[in-house]
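Lab notebook page, bench 4
Experiment: in silico fold of construct C2
Operator: M.H.
Input chain length: 45 residues
Purpose: comparison with the prior construct
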Amino acid sequence: MEWLIVALLFAVTSIGLFILTGSLMSSLFIGVLVGVVAVGVVAML
């Protein structure tokens, strides 16, 4: 269940930023950062 939450956050962030900025690399980079933060939060739960 936790990995589903992380995957959804990563996907929504990456797709949203890609639509807003048009830059694939920056959207993936920020998506990975959000994913890492989400993994940390899930690990604390």
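Observations: Residues 24-44 form the longest helix (21 residues). Helices lie at 2-21, 24-44.
Next step: discuss at group meeting.
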